[in-house]
Amino acid sequence: MAKKEISPFDPSFGGLPNTYIERNQVFPYMENAALTSRGPWKTTVVSGVRGSGKTALLTTLYQHLEKNSKAIVIMNAMSPQLLDNIIHDLYAALSASQKEIVDKTISGITLPGFSIDVKSEKRDLLTLTDTFHSRFNLLIEHLNQQHNTVTILIDEIIVEDESQQAIMRTLANEYQVAVNKGRKVSLFMAGLPNNIEKILQEKSSTFINRAKRVFLDDIKLDDVKHSYLSVFQDDIDQKRLTRDIVLKAAELTEGYAYLVQLIGYYLFENLKMGLYNEDALKYALISAKDDLFQNVHSIIFMELPEKQKEFLIAMAEDDAETKVADLQERMSADKGYIGQYRSRLIKLALIEPAGHGLVRYTIPFTRDFIRDYYEDVNVW
Q1: What contacts 110, CB < 8 A, 6 or more positions away?
Q2: Which of 51, 60, 50 has the alpha carbon at shortest distance from 26?
Q3: 0.85 cut: is pTM over it?
Q4: Residue 375 in 3-state DSSP?
């Protein structure tokens, strides 16, 4: 009999699946820092490649904190309206009595989505000295007076132009002011390695430079295996899957968070359609790779400069690790040139050292993607 349950896996970007393997090595520290507004983790910057689980980590933290009556948590993605959205969410978190106090202090409050008009000679909250500083610190102060800690989560950090840099600079500087004033506030941000690197290089935001830095490595394979065996135990008992096939499915993920969800999802769905054992895994892998190529690899390659693409494509000639010396020959480039692009791709977390003079891809099936989509391209 085929399965009829709803899949516990959710490979959609931005979603939080029912089967989520927590990053136990970092999550408890982040949650404790958010609840106490103390310790080195209260300001944390999370980076990782596309599909590594950054959004899921922040979403899990959001959901945990939301259940605590003394914790105020807001979560936003990077946008031109980020600072206004933060003010909007902080104001919305005030109690009715605190809103009355703020309203009496300010002549009127006009926030995205609603407007409150209060008669007074004082200026509007959003135009008070025309600074984010005035609004941000005022609201944090009143939320703290409610005996609430405040946690700000910012996902998908992007700093590709001056306006985005200015937004992040303002947020970082005013957050530092709030911390220096003893406000109970914490800040957690997540983004791709290149964008996080730009934030950390910002000279005027030295406070963020001292933040706790977390790079999301692959999930431990033992944790993936344990999770898969738990989810598919009934299928093993019913002879729809063997234990070895479940373990093989886990190994195919290589611990890459997005692929853990993809393979788990399609394996679960194939079982519901009456495909069992080898067939269930075979077609799950085909579907998972299609989604991985479309939602990760193709986007990465679309955003990369040509020379960095050439480097990755040149590596695809090998079935395993690549000798850096071989890349010099394939790309007709000298050692310094190859070393330069090797360093850039390592910073982007798209390749990693694999021994003396060797490199390898970090994201599963990168080689397969290149061979499928660039098989007729000769860049050498």
Answers
A1: 116, 124, 125, 126
A2: 60
A3: yes
A4: coil
Question: Distance (Å, rounded) from C-alpha 269 to C-alpha 246?
Answer: 14
- Tokens matching residue 299: 């986007």
How is the chain split into domains, by residue range?
27-215, 221-300, 305-373
* Residue 242: HSE in the Cβ half-sphere, 13 Å Cα cutoff: 6
Residue 376 has pLDDT above 70, yes or no: no
Running DSSP on this structure, what letter comes out for residue 38? -
Angle between helices 277-292 and 257-272 (to 10 degrees): 140
Alpha carbons 331 and 174: distance in angstroms, whole number: 47
| pLDDT exceeds 50 at position 116 | no
Taking the domain 305-373, which CATH number applies?
Answer: 1.10.10.10
Q: Token pair of 50, please?
A: 């596309």
SS (H, E, C) 56-88: HHHHHHHHHHHCCCCEEEEEEECCCCHHHHHHH
The domain 27-215 is placed in CATH, from the list 1.10.1040.50, 3.40.50.150, 3.40.470.10, 3.40.50.300, at 3.40.50.300
- The strand pair at 185-191 and 212-215 is best described as unpaired
**Neighbour tally for 282: CB within 10 Å:** 12
Instruction: Transcribe 232-283 into DSSP letters.
Output: THHHHHTTSS-HHHHHHHHHHHTT-HHHHHHHHHHHHHHHHTT--HHHHHHH
C-alpha distances (whole Å) from 314 to each of 50, 288, 296, 318, 319 are 22, 25, 19, 8, 12
Q: What does the alpha-carbon distance between residue 71 and residue 34 come to, in Å, rounded to a whole number?
A: 8
How far apart (Å, rounded) are the C-alpha atoms in residues 24 and 28? 7
Which DSSP helix (H) or strand (E) runs through 117? strand 114-117
Average of pLDDT values for 152-169? 92
To which residue do tokens 């891809």 refer?
A: 361
- The whole-number pLDDT of residue 134 equals 76
